[in-house]
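Suppose a colleague, Dr. K., hands you the sequence of a protein chain of 397 amino acids and asks what its three-dimensional shape might be. Before reaching for any lab equipment, you can write down a predicted structure in token form. Begin with the sequence itself:
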Amino acid sequence: MREADPAFALLLRLCARAARHGAPDSAATAGRVDWEAFLRLVERHRVAGLVHLALGRVGGDAADAVPEPVRQSIAQKAGGLVRHNLAMVAATVRLQKMFDAAGIEVVFFKGALVGQRAYGSIGVKHGKDIDFLVRPDDLAATFGLLAGEGYRPVFPKAPLTPAKIDALRAFQMEAVMADPARGVQLEPHWRLTENRRLLPLGPLLAAADKRESLGGVPIRGFHPDDEFAYLCVHGARSGWFRLKWLADLHALLAGRPEEERLRLYRHAETRGAGPAALLAFGLCRDLFALPVPAALAGPVEAPLQRAMRRLGVTALHDEDPQFSIRRVVVLPMLHALACGPRHVMAEILRWSVNCQDALDVPLPRALYFLYPLLRGPLWLWRLLGGKGRLGRRVARP
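The predicted structure, expressed as tokens, is then:
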């Protein structure tokens, strides 16, 4: 692993310390830190809540080493995060009640539920939006309910016609809706990844239940073991370019005995998330010194795993990796290779169609096979000033 600069090294130690079972001495620092760079990293990785929590646990020389203006800046950001998260929790509670009343099965994931499990608080983990999963057949009804609650489409643009909804179901995994008055953004999902072979919905939906509450209201979420599998896949598919994702996984794993961490890996294997879980274990070892279970010491050093770890660490250090070829294409393809030939084919097929094409030029379902052939001409049409946009990729939270 590349040697971290002092600012990034300090950020790693503080994120590790934010875990309930983080190492007590993990926030020691030296005086060589570029504090402006450190604050930029906190913002870039969206970990102000974790850093603020960790600094509150640090005493003595380690606490004094962080300048007061830096601590104040982080405290201000953390305070804003708490207010934002409270609004998100209130919206989640309203949505759960709304879907229950409509008889629509919904599963909330990431966000406040993970923050509660990982840190014992809803105010620490950053979340840009509220992610939830509905069955594909409930998508049209879901959009209608959300519109009635004041949420407006961000992607795709209004109106959400039946043809657009059909295109979304076929070629996309999520939409984006927002309520400007409440300052809340939603991501309704009907699949969990772009690759259809990853994380099949049936077993995950069957195991989901209302085992946890927010604001005293039971919220339906994934089983914790399935949430672990999903977080590993989400990180791998997203290129691990934000430290907050890895910090959340570390917080969920830290303090667990080796046999429990191995059991989580075995469960992830049953959900098709074995390679992603291996990658997560390797990164947690390299960045947070979390031991890899002995039974996984060999698999985690497989060539594809080492290559994916290098890409993940590079993405963490890049200033703007969000749309880099390494993150968007190379790492997902390596992950597909690690999963097997059928996953590679699914990856190629999903890149053959731009969902924006299907939104801009609706075709009957029987003609969907034409979209791979139309991708080049439609791209050129947009480039030359035709209607629509040059495709859209939803920004990752």
